[in-house]
Write a structure and sequence with these properties.
Distance between the termini of chain B: 55 Å
Largest interface: A-B, 35 and 27 residues
Structural class of chain A: alpha/beta
Number of strands of chain B: 10
Oligomer: heterodimer
Helix content of chain A: 10-25%
Shape of chain A: globular
Strand content of chain B: 35-45%
Helix content of chain B: 10-25%
Number of helices of chain B: 2
Largest sheet of chain B: 5 strands, mixed
Distance between the termini of chain A: 61 Å
Bound molecules: flavin-adenine dinucleotide
Number of strands of chain A: 27
Shape of chain B: elongated
């Protein structure tokens, strides 16, 4: 069968971002909203993040991932929002055609009034790391290990080494340790951990798991199954130092080496992408470079907190609704945001100056007594670190007074 | 007297504190930059608490995520996991339904964080 039809608003992805966007659009009076998601269940990545720490900002409560997203799924059902599961979006065009496929209806060809991109991010796989060795079983990304353990109920291994100390890797170290799996080490290339201090303490130190900084995995041993990995120290450029190799026996290697916004669809539609974030350029309305297309959540940039993902989703939902009603202010005087000293990335990358703006930015190294400068405005922060996203807000007046370019930089003293 | 090295997790500064411990109590500290940090190291030395969460088996296959309704002493986490490993649930289970009452006598319950048909 082949479904063809017009839909007011199509949301691609039913995770935290997509559901927040859909709910906001409903609140704004949009009647026909379709959320398309390739998974069997709605909610994106959160149903498998069974730890606490979600919702502190948005709900003022300390929730687990499943509890947080369940609130949005329930509301979406109550509001009668159409969520099509097992529905993979294959293609998006400039004319807002959405081509998708699912097992029950076959090919769906929709013409959307507006499209919200909410595809989230994916994990960097082993292939992008080029670690020598065979192709034994027992190598997983952190997200896959999490899914096996906490959605499907399988232990991926007995003795684990984790490469990468971002928050997802740290959280998996704790989950393994709690379930009686021995975590031999967490290996990190950089001189400082990739995740939050709180996670280093509560996920590693609590369980006596060693964090090996300035080191990497240089070889994977084993034919059928992983038997060991070789870990070596690295120099200032991240290259292994000969003679420092050490073999660590293990049956599982978990990779937690970074997340990348999922933007093949956006690219295919001709949406301009930012090299720094890996996501579309957006303005303060979460509007992309292509008319009628909005974006939110981790597809824009990898956020640290789901609370911020939800807020960008609501913004995108509101903007798309305004667009559909012909009420969205056109981008009249677009100003480019220019990341400078110590700024790895900043969102939005463009500002049209019609309202207040929340900037999200990541620094490139840890600093203390930091001054975050946006336009001419300066914000003080006691300390800033790369794993933590900084948010600063400018009011409408302040934004209005800015020049043609908005420089953003962070100054401060080095933090060990 | 015992000396403990602790990293404060209250803010991104992450002060590395030296804490002097006597009879299980923090009696002094160095290298902390604020009051909240002092409260934190005292708690961490005297009674460190942690959120508890895991999954329980579902009859007929699969797992259900659960959590404690409040934090529990850090040193009881593994015991709590063992306790929950013996639990098997059967649907239907509502969101927030109690799976284990009064976990290890600690005065907190373990509840479902997802629902089961
Ligand atoms: C493994 C992992 C663990 C994480 N752990 C934490 C954590 O502990 N704490 C925290 O705050 N954040 C965590 N995050 C970040 C978390 O992803 C975000 O906080 C937030 O949940 C992202 O929401 P999202 O809606 O942007 O993306 P997602 O939740 O990833 O949702 C995107 C959805 O889009 C769907 N999709 C993508 N492409 C298509 C397509 N072509 N067609 C149809 N559907 C599509 C996907 O199936 C998915 O359901 C984690 C991320 C990952 C990857």
């Amino acid at each position: 069968m082949r479904v063809e039809g017009e839909v007011e608003l199509v949301v691609v992805g039913g995770g935290a971002a997509g559901l927040a966007a859909a709910l906001k659009a409903r609140e704004e009076g949009i009647e026909e909203i379709w959320v398309l998601d390739r998974n069997e269940r709605p909610g994106g990545i959160l149903p498998q993040c069974i730890h606490t720490g979600f919702g502190l900002h948005y709900f003022g409560e300390n929730l687990t991932g499943p509890e947080y997203i369940h609130r949005f799924i329930r509301r979406a059902r109550e509001e009668g929002i159409t969520i099509k599961l097992e529905t993979m979006v294959l293609r998006l065009t400039k004319e807002r055609e959405v081509v998708a496929v699912n097992p029950s209806e076959g090919l769906l060809k929709l013409k959307a009034g507006a499209v919200i991109l909410a595809m989230g991010c994916r994990e960097r796989p082993r292939g992008s790391l080029l670690i020598p060795g065979g192709r034994p079983a027992g190598i997983f990304t952190a997200g896959t290990a999490q899914r096996l353990l906490d959605l499907e109920g399988y232990l991926p291994g007995r003795e684990v080494v984790i490469l990468g100390s971002g928050d997802v890797g740290l959280i998996m170290a704790r989950r393994f340790a709690m379930e009686g799996v021995e975590v031999k080490a967490v290996v990190e290339l950089m001189p400082y951990p990739g995740g939050l201090g709180r996670n280093v303490v509560q996920c590693l130190e609590d369980f006596g798991i060693p964090l090996l900084l300035r080191r990497t995995v240089t070889h994977i041993h084993g034919r059928e199954r992983v038997e060991a990995v070789t870990v070596a120290e690295v120099d200032g450029e991240g290259n292994p130092i000969p003679g420092t190799e050490r073999k660590i026996p293990c049956d599982t290697l978990v990779l937690s080496v970074g997340l990348i916004p999922e933007n093949e669809l956006s690219e295919g539609a001709g949406i301009e992408l930012d090299e720094r974030t890996g996501g579309p350029f957006v303005d303060e309305f979460m509007r992309t470079s292509l008319e009628g297309f909005f974006a939110c959540g981790n597809v824009v940039t990898v956020f640290d907190l789901v609370d911020h993902v939800t807020l960008t989703g609501e913004r995108a939902g509101k903007s798309a609704s305004q667009y559909l009603k012909g009420e969205l202010p056109p981008p009249r005087r677009v100003r480019e945001v220019r990341p400078g000293e110590n700024v790895r990335l900043v969102v939005p990358q463009r500002v049209s100056g019609e309202g207040p703006v929340t900037f999200y930015l990541r620094v490139s190294r840890p600093l203390r007594e930091a001054r975050v400068e946006v336009g001419g405005k300066s914000f003080f922060r006691k300390a800033v670190r790369p794993p933590e996203m900084l948010t600063v807000e400018l009011g409408k007046e302040e934004v209005g007074g800015l020049g043609g370019e908005i420089p953003v930089r962070v100054l401060g003293k080095p933090l060990g | 007297m015992e000396v403990k090295e602790l990293t404060c997790v209250i803010c991104p500064l992450g002060c590395r504190a030296k804490v002097y411990v006597e009879g299980g109590r923090a009696v002094g500290w160095e290298h902390l930059e604020c009051k909240a940090g002092e409260e934190y190291v005292k708690r961490e030395v005297e009674r460190p608490l942690r959120d508890f969460f895991t999954v329980v088996r579902v009859k007929g296959g699969g797992v259900l995520p659960v959590r404690s309704t409040g934090p529990i002493p850090k040193e009881r986490l593994k015991e709590a996991v063992k306790e929950l490993a013996a639990v098997e649930v059967e649907g239907p289970v509502r969101m927030g339904e109690v799976v284990v009452k009064n976990l290890l006598g600690l005065g907190v319950d373990v509840v479902a964080t997802w629902e089961l048909e």
